Amino acid sequence: MTKRILHVVSNVSHYADPSERTGLWLSELTHAYDVFAKKGYEQHLVSPKGGLSPLEPRSLKWPNIDATAKVWLADATRMALLSNTARPDEINSADFDAIYFTGGHAVMWDFPESEGLQRITREIYERGGIVASVCHGYCGLLNTKLSDGTLLVSGRKLTGFAWVEEILAGVAKKIPYNAEQEMKQRGALYEKALLPFTSYVVTDDRLVTGQNPQSAKATAERIAELL
Q1: Which of 7, 54, 116, 170 is spaced 20 to 30 A from 149 at the CA atom?
Q2: How many structural domains are present in the chain?
Q3: Residue 191 is part of a domain; what is its CATH number?
Q4: Enclosing domain of residue 124
Q5: pLDDT tens-digit readout, 89-112
């Protein structure tokens, strides 16, 4: 049977200051999408509210934009996928083998408290599926509890955008919390690469996480290996 992937994207378009734009870091979706497309997997997009997923302006500029992102921007059919994402209540978790949380600072606002995303994540994981994230996407795993009431991330090895990377990116004072610290407070066994902004992927059973935008392709490849 064809494997099915559910990509999670944000609906948020700005930081606390509306003049400071943010959104989906496009290459974190496109790198993974391409890996899965080459495998022939079926892919769908969901967001906390459904509808439009705005793009992070910085992800569309040099040196952050790459060939995979440029292909998306030039493809009306693929861009339409980002204009019409599904709502969580429209998703049957049984239809998917893996859920993949994309990043961009936007997700820090709308991923953690989405009960719909938590439901889908819990159901996919408990049915034997894969839960994955890249960069800030791990914010979507902060509050997900399993059926026994324990946090999914408690006692689990994982990675995600590091606090030192927030500082180097110049956004540490704009974001609502320190995601690395929040993960550690929830009992997660957080890891990161020795050098910031280098590819780093952590696998703990069926939990697969990538540290930063540079890790998206490797994260997707690891998901594909497990599938």
Answers
A1: 7
A2: 1
A3: 3.40.50.880
A4: 4-226
A5: 999 999 999 999 999 999 999 999
